[in-house]
Structure formats: structure tokens, C-alpha cells
Amino acid sequence: MSDPQISVVLPTYDAAFHVRGAIRSLREQTLTDFEVVVVDDGSTDGTLDIVRRVSDDRFRVVERDDPTGGLPGALNRGVWEARAPYVARQDADDQSHPHRLEEQVDFLDENPDVALVGTGARILRTDGTVKDVRRTKPQPTFPDLLEKNHFVHGSVAFRRGIVRELGGYDERFEFSEDYDLWLRLARRHAVRNLKAVRYDLRLHGESIYGAELETVKLYAAFARARALNNTSLTAEEVHGDPRCVYREFTVPERARFHREMAQALLRYGERADARSHARRGLCDSPTDPRLWVFLALSVAPSRATDAAVWAARRLSNVRAR
Q1: What is the C-alpha to C-alpha distance for residues 275 and 246, in angstroms, rounded to an integer?
Q2: Nearest to 168 by CA among 144, 184, 155, 152
Q3: Percent of the chain with pLDDT over 70
Q4: Residue 207 pLDDT > 50, yes or no?
Q5: How far apart, in whole angstroms, are the C-alpha atoms of residue 199 and residue 195?
Q6: What CA–CA distance (Å, rounded) separates 268 from 264?
Q7: Is the pLDDT of residue 195 over 60?
Q8: Under a CB-based contact definition with an 8 Å cutoff, are residues 175 and 216 in contact?
Q9: Distance (Å, rounded) from C-alpha 100 to C-alpha 31?
Q10: What pTM does this model have?
Q11: DSSP secondary-structure letter at 154?
């Protein structure tokens, strides 16, 4: 049997409620020459039964008896099991649009210098309705990525060989393992995004997008510092105590951290916590206009704050085109 054009790595853990939708979205792809490597981390809610009942020999299950390394470990297992030259990501609670894999394979075929290609995404509420759309920068550079993560993790496809050469995902990262890998990729290779929206990203109470936000930001800051060879910390130290990243910050880095936290918390509607971070940031950078804006929005009527957040997202999407 010849190798498929692309392997989809689908990690699962107690994903019975959503995994059928993820599987259906992959089976409806216009590209048919692919495989799906389902890497299960010990699900107990019937997820494996659902996957095993799929009557499609393109799907195969890898069970991790000793699920060390968390999500990064599951992703690495999938990358190492993959048979295709390209690997796509897919989360068990998300869905890929029908043309996604075909367009990403075509793009990588036509652009041999590109190591990674992502897409824009629709952001779905828990009930499946569209909350927002995230459009991504078509040609992000390494300096662009130092400013922010320009990729939707579940939407990406990359060259398996290059990621293997880099050692894959760093399994010592509890969060932001994707951002760390993109930074390492972008230092040596071109990375791109399709302009089209080809992925549905679901937000819900168990998603890291709504929890552990401070730890996520600290891991991201460590990934940036490590990419610039600008930290004495090791990944083991950060894994043991993510707050050690904050203690190493310079004054401008502390201000940036609080600014990013305030902005994200406003987006999630956590106005009191956003206000706290804006105030702490202003202690380090009292003339930062963005921190003053975030402080004002944290005490403004909620309708005004929501309107400002919506306008900021629209502006971000326009700039990404």
C-alpha cells in the first residue's frame, strides 16, 4: 500500500460528545488520499468505541498506555506514527471544512520552501453557533511571531520530516507547545497561512482558551525568550514552576505580560481581573496608552466593552488580509 498524501493527527481524551463531528468533517474532505492517526490518552467515556466503529480503513487508533508528556506527547506520537510526508492537526472537538486538506496539500506541493501552512478559523460557541472569525496573517515572519502567535493550532499542516528534525513538540511544555514549535520552525523556514477560513474552533468550559490563561501566557513568554536565546531558564524549571518566567521578566516584559493578560481577559468578559492586570502593568509602564484603554474598558459599561472588543477583532482581521 502506498503512503497517503497527508496524515491527520487527532489526539483524543474523553471526547465522546464531539468526536463524531470531527470524524465526519474528515470523512467529508474533497481530498480522499489521507490517513487519520487517532492518538488516545486513556479515554473512559466511550471515545474509543466511537472511533473503532468508524467503517473507514483510513482511520487507525494508537492507544497510549503510559500517556506521559500530555498533549505534546500525544502529538509527537502521532507525528512519529504518520506515514505521509505532510501532517495535519485536528482537535477532537473541532471540525475541518471540506476543502481544507486538499488546499493545504496543493499549497505545500506548490511551495517547497514552506514548512507549515495554517488557515483562518471560525470560533464556535458551545452550542455550535458562530461567535467570531479569526483571520490569520498570510505570510508571518519570525519577528511577526515574536509579537503574537499567528496560527490556529488545529488548522495547520506541516512537513513531517522538518518537524521530526526539530525534535517535534517539546513535551515539557504544559501549554503553548504549538507556539514554541512555530517559533523554531520560523527561524529556519518559511511559514504561511491560507487566506481562506477552513477550520471551526470550538470554545467550551474545558478548553484552555477559557482557563489557565496566565500559565499559557507565561509559557508563551518563555518560548519567545528561548527562541531569542534570552533566558537562563530551562524547560524543566518552567514546567515545575511557570511563575519563574515572571520573576525573570524585565520591567518592559512585565508590562507586556499584564497588557496581554488584560486584553485577553476583557475578551473573555473577566472585567475585574482585566482591571487588576491593567493597573499592575501601569505600575511598570505608566505612559502605555493601551494599558490605559484596557483599564478604562474594564470599568466601562459592559455593552461598550463588548463593542470595543468586537471592533478590535474586526480591525485585526482586516490587517491579517
Answers
A1: 19
A2: 184
A3: 93
A4: no
A5: 12
A6: 6
A7: yes
A8: yes
A9: 8
A10: 0.92
A11: G
Write out the H or E segment, with its range, that includes residue 221.
Answer: helix 213-227
> Cell numbers of 24, please?
465526519
Positive or negative, the CA dihedral 18, 21, 23, 29 is negative
What is the pLDDT averaged over residues 152-170?
97
Cell of 88: 495535519
What pLDDT does residue 249 have?
Answer: 97
Instruction: Say if residue 295's pLDDT is above 70.
Output: yes
What pLDDT score was predicted for residue 125? 84
Name the pLDDT band for 244 (thresholds 50, 70, 90): very high
Distance CA 41, CA 12 (A): 6
Q: Please provide the size of the chain in residues.
A: 321
Only one residue has cell 502506498, namely: 2
Q: Which residues pair with 86 in a beta bridge?
A: 6, 159
- Cα–Cα distance, 219 to 149 (Å, whole number): 12
**CA nearest neighbour of 10 among 46, 40, 52, 34:** 40
All three cell numbers of 141: 515572519
- Looking at the DSSP assignment, which residues form a beta bridge with residue 63? 40
Cα–Cα dist 316/132, whole Å:
12
Nearest to 169 by CA among 159, 184, 154: 184
d(CA 27, CA 22): 9
Looking at residue 121, its pLDDT comes to 97
CA distance 250 to 111: 40
CATH numbers and ranges of domains, the chain: 6-208 (3.90.550.10), 210-320 (no CATH)
Q: Alpha carbon of 47 to those of 43, 44, 154, 217, 290: distances in Å?
A: 6, 7, 19, 30, 44
Kindly tell me if the per-residue pLDDT of 210 is higher than 60: no
